Structure formats: C-alpha cells, structure tokens
Amino acid sequence: MDWGKIYKIKDSVDIYLVDETYIVAYFMNTRQKKKFRVSNGSVHIIEIIDGINNIENIYNTYCLKNGTISRKGFSTFFNCLLKSGLIIEKSQKHILSSSELKRFNRQINYFSEFLSSELAAEKAQKKLLNSVVAIWGCGAVGGNLAVQLAMAGVGTFILIDPDVVEESDCSRHVYFKQESVGDKKVESLADYIKSINPAIKTYISYQWLHPNADLSEILKKATFLIDAADEPYLGYTANLISQNCVPIKLPHYIAGGFDAHLASTGELIIPYITPCAGCYSTYFERVLSDWKPEHHPIKNREKEMGGLAAMSLFSSSFACIEIIKYICGLKDMKVAYKPRAEFLFNGMKLFNLTPSKDPNCKICGGADHEL
Amino acid sequence: MNYKLRSSVSIVDSGGNVLEFFKTNTRKSIKIHVKSPMIKNIVTHLDGNLSFNEIVQCYNLQGEEQQLAILLSYLKEKSIISNDALVKDREDYFKYRRIIHFLEDYAHSDELLLEMWKNIRKSTVMIIGLGAVGNWVALNLAQSGVSNFILMDKDIVDITNLHRQIAFTAADIGKSKSTVIARYINHFDPSIHVLEIKQDLTENNLCAVVGEKNVDLIINCADKPNVDITSRWVGKYCMKRRIPHIVGGGYNLHLSLIGQTVIPFESACVNCFEEQLKEKNSLDGLTVKRLDTKNRKIGSFGPMCSIIASMIGMEAIKVLSSHIPPDNVNRRGEFDINTMNLKYQEFNRLSTCEWCGYEKN
C-alpha cells in the first residue's frame, strides 16, 4: 500500500451505521447494498477519510485520537474498504480535456462505482472516445445504438447501410425526419450523431453484407463491430460477421430486435472466449430441431410484420450497456458476459437462452487459443 | 370477407395432427388439433384471396364446411387470421403499419383492432420531467402514433445533459427542453400537437396546468425535490381524476428502478406502495445513523435510463390501447447492470389505503 495516496468515500455511496455493530453501504448508482460487521474504531476511520489527507495522515489522526494501532492492521482494513468498492483514489491530474470532463462528468462518476480510482474512471471514458465502432445495418436498433453510443462518447463511427429512409421508418428510426425520406440512411444518421457531439468522426459505406463483400478496410479501422443487419436474416449476417471478426480477434455484438425477436438482447462476442455466431447456430440447430415452419402463403409478408419503437429501444439499450461494460472494462466480461435472452412484451420478463461454446464450431472451435 | 393467415404468424406442422401457430410479434404459440388433411391444407394456404364460399368451391369441400367455419372463426378470434380489413383503408396505415400489425396480436376482430389503434391515435399523454427517461418515452410514443402530448419541464438544455438525454444536440444548449422535444417529435409527424408547460411540478400546480383537459396517461419522470415526493403529488392528482399513471424510474437514486403502472381504483396506488415499502425497508428496533461522508454526487448512465424508458413505453402502449392489460401493476422492478437481469417486487392494493381503500374511514 502506498501511504502517500489520497482516498475518499465514493461520491455515490451512502454509509449507514446500524446498531453500532455493522455498517450498510448503499451504492446509489447501481443500487447494490453491502453489509459489514465493524468495530467502533473502523467506523472512526471511515469518518476521517476525506479526500484531502493521504493515508499516512489519516493513520496519524486516528492514532492521535484513539491510541496507536499497528500499521499492518490499519492497512488490512484500508485494503478491505478498497476491495469492497467503498473508497476511491483521488486523482491529482486529468487525462480528459475540460470540455470532455464537463460533458461526461455524470457518466464518469457512474463508471467510478466499478473502479478503484478516479483516474481509472477517466481512462474508461477515454477508451470510449478512442473507440472506432463499425455498425452494419442502421435501422431501428443499429440507428439507436449509433445515437446511444455517440451520446456516451464513442469518438468514431463507421456506418454501413445501403438503404434509403422510407416513410414507414418513422415508427422505428429515432433519427427519422420527414424531409429525409429518400436520403441514404447512413447520411441522415451521420449528420444526426455529429449534431449531438460535433467532435465525432464518421465514415459511411453503402455496402450490402454478402459473402463476397470486401470487409477488409472496415475491419482494419474498427476496434469494435456491431451487426444490426437483418437482411436476408440475422442468423446469416451474424455468421458472416463472426467468420470475419473471430480470426482477427475483433470483438463484436450481434444485435437483437428484429422480426420474431422484437426485443431480444443480442449478444457480445469476444472471440475464442464467448460463444460466437457459429456456436449460436449449433445451439439453435439443436433446440429448434423440431421447428420446421411451413411455407407462408403471404407474399411480401415483411410488409405486415409488427414492431414498436419501445421494443427496439430495449434491444439497443441492452446492447449498449454490454458494449460499454466491455469497452470500458467496467466488468470482466470474459466471465460476466450475458448470453442472448428474449424480452417478452407480454409479462415484461427476460427469457434466458443457454448456448455454450461449440468445440467443433467451424468459426471458433478446434484450435487451441490463448485466453 | 376473405381469409388471410397473418404475415407475422408462422405455422409449424408438429405432426400427429397438431398445427402450431406462432405469433412472432409477441412470441406466443397456439396449438390446435386438425384431423382432416384437407382442412389442414386449406388453413396453411390462406392467402387472403378467397372468401369462405370460394374456399369451399375451390377445394371442392364436401361435408366439412361446418368444421372449417368453426375453425376459421376460432383462428380469427385468436388473431391468427388477419383482422386488419378496417385499418388498412386508413390514411395513416402505411406510415404506422408496424404498430398496427403489432396490436393485431391482441385483436379478436377487425373492429377491435380499429378501436385500439384509434385509442392510441387520439390519446393525450402527459410527461412530467424531460430528461434521460422522459425524452425517450416521448419519442417512442410519438413514433407509435400518439398524437397529443403535454410536456412539462422548466429547464433549459445544458451540456451535461447531452451524454444521456436523447433529442438534445449541441446547438440546443440554452433552449427550453420542452420546445426542443416538441420540435423533435414533429419531425416524425408534423400534425402531433404538443402543449408545453415550462414550470416545475409543485404539490398543487397540476390542477391549474392541466385544467379540464382530457389526459389518458401521465408519466412521472420528475425528480425534484425527489422521486418519492413527486410520485405522491402526481399520484394524488391522478387518483382524483382517475387517470392511469406510470411512476417512471431511471433517475437519480433510482437509476435501475422500473416504476409501477397504476390504474386508479383497480391496482395498488402510489400510497399503497409507499405503505408497503415502509414496512419492507424498516430496520425495526435498530438504531440507524448515517455516517457523515463529505460530498454526495450521483452518477448517471444513458443506456440504463433508456432501458427503463423502453419498458415504460411498452406499458404505455398497453394502457393507451385500452385492451391490452399492463403487466407492471402491483409490482415494481429493478434492472441489475451486474447480472443484466430483471427482478420484480410484488405489492397489493390495500383495503385500508387512504387514497383508494374501500375500508378507509
């Protein structure tokens, strides 16, 4: 332990002393509650951690008032506070500009609940600013994700979609404007996210996602890729994306929120660690082996499918949280990643799927990769 | 009328004379026994081009007419066969067809689908507090066909709002929040009517600002002075006027809360919840002291707010349709960012409740 460091109780943590025997810490940002049995002395230590004095001074102040205790005991207790996330190291310097700090202040505070120093929280924000996120498919969910990630601070986007804005997109695309009908979707979307934050850089492409599409330029630039393209259908685009991203270890997200899965969560794919799109295909082949739909009698049935903006927003928000947790390192997503789930409008509950990594997966299986 | 299998319904022949109909919008399955191969064949080919008599003729159906008639009327009632004949002629069908075909999952007749859609179209929604949650809810509902809004917020757009509050751009800084949102939702449909109320909510000002106007749903996203107090003010007012209301969530100190939907005098009201929360949260017989920590500053995170907003948006559509029962009555939820799971806590309507109880003094 470095006795010269300065700590404070996290801004978002409320601490209560109950019956003089234990303390309850409420983490306001994430609404978690932790309980600790404590002695009188430790309560006093908590009360004098002020974000101004370093550990050495706090130790001295404590000993002066309460009599000398061993440095080892003091340091054990301090480490325990740190480990349980009650305190955070103050930072003396900033790595973000003052305008970035102002814009993202509340979010950096939120991040700090997962981290152990103010500097680490700023670094987490910096990771977003430095990210280059490619989004394939800029419809309801892809469009929402671009906007949500832009608000949160992603610095650079590659937006890919061949389509133009149609009148009926009004009910689905958050960036829809009546006067943009007929314009390329990626252009409307790029203009919109730059109006939120003029510092954002955008690259656009009108490419269809097909087996011969040349992804090399995009894969070279992107630090993260999102698949929100559901034509001809999502399973197809997901496999194509994983096939391209897994070998070069590019993390990606297969978004939910498409026909028949209007509020599904999608899934984060960390190559060779989480199940990839190929593993999901194997999983569905197994669980849906009896599911053989008849040929549907209606031609152009896609014109009569349902959907609500609020359901797309569920899918995009869920994906956005997982993506930011991963990019910013708020959680160890190698363990904490969440497999796909279906959110049901009826009942408002999540139905969790249980895919696993397929050792024989054509995309990620077989080879022995280091973790 | 012609019979058409709905586009969003998939059929699976499960074998053993069982046909499964899967409503893809709401992911519900209905399985039925169909013994006759002929009838099975007819049902899987309902493309909307034939009337009942034409079907009978075309398939040369003999002796099974009655069985077919019963089955078709059952499938129509279960919204497996389409009920969109009356809405398709409407001017707004093309623009809002996805919403309409979603509602169709709950329509057992052409008339009912039209009625639900009209209910949503003509409804007035009041949103109190235009921030990370209220803005998304306003946008979602405008996109789903709601055409009258009352938007209440006194604030102007600040740079610190932009990381989480949708619809605000860098150029909007310094402008009135309600004006910016009104302009934004008019991009979706210029005929949307917005009444802006540039005031903070207070204990008694709802009566004055709403007056005699008809309001179908109030969504409380106001957190000044705090959520518990604003929910009480809004709840009390709504009980008096019997207006359904949703207690938001997703704001300071309640970032992951999914507030309840209240249908006055049918489900637990804000006061019922509060009474039961007091019990649940009390640390009986213990002395509790808040330790003095220096500054209390709460963080915020856009997508956590918007995931709550999405659920409020779905509940709102149910309430506004008047025919889809809302799910978050008598309960409130939490979305846990660590596990990415949802949990609900159940509450009851209290017979002794001061606001809505039938045994109150």
Secondary-structure topology with pairs:
The complex is a heterodimer of chains A (371) and B (361).
Chain A: E1 7-9, E2 13-18, E3 22-27, E4 32-37, H1 40-48, H2 55-66, H3 71-83, E5 87-89, H4 98-112, H5 118-130, E6 132-136, H6 140-152, E7 156-160, H7 185-196, E8 201-205, H8 216-221, E9 224-227, H9 234-245, E10 252-254, E11 267-269, H10 277-287, H11 309-328, H12 333-336, E12 341-344, E13 349-352
Parallel strand pairs in A: 6-7, 6-9, 7-8, 9-10
Antiparallel strand pairs in A: 1-5, 2-3, 3-4, 10-11, 12-13
Helix pairs in contact in A: 1-2, 4-5, 6-7, 6-11
Chain B: E1 2-4, E2 9-15, E3 18-23, E4 28-33, H1 37-43, E5 47-51, H2 52-58, H3 65-77, H4 97-103, H5 110-122, E6 124-128, H6 134-143, E7 148-152, H7 177-188, E8 193-197, H8 205-210, E9 217-220, H9 227-241, E10 245-246, E11 257-258, E12 261-262, H10 270-281, E13 288-290, H11 302-321, E14 331-336, E15 341-346
Helix pairs in contact in B: 6-7, 6-11
What this model shows, in words?
The complex is a heterodimer of chains A (371) and B (361). Chain A has helices at residues 40-48, 55-66, 71-83, 98-112, 118-130, 140-152, 185-196, 216-221, 234-245, 277-287, 309-328, 333-336, and strands spanning 7-9, 13-18, 22-27, 32-37, 87-89, 132-136, 156-160, 201-205, 224-227, 252-254, 267-269, 341-344, 349-352. Chain A has 371 residues and is of the alpha/beta class. Chain A folds into 2 domains: 6-89, Outer Surface Protein A, domain 3, CATH 3.90.930.60; 130-352, NAD(P)-binding Rossmann-like Domain (Rossmann fold). In chain A, the strands form 4 sheets. A 6-stranded mixed sheet of chain A has the order 8-7-6-9-10-11, with helices on both faces. Chain A has a 3-stranded antiparallel sheet with strand order 2-3-4, with no helix packed on it. In chain A, strands 1-5 form a two-stranded antiparallel ribbon. Chain A is elongated, with a radius of gyration of 24 Å. The mean pLDDT of chain A is 93. Chain B has 361 residues and is an alpha/beta fold. The model of chain B has no long low-confidence stretch (mean pLDDT 93). The chains are: A alpha/beta (371), B alpha/beta (361). At the A-B interface, strand 2, helix 1, helix 4, helix 6 and helix 11 of A face strand 2, helix 4, helix 6, strand 13 and helix 11 of B.
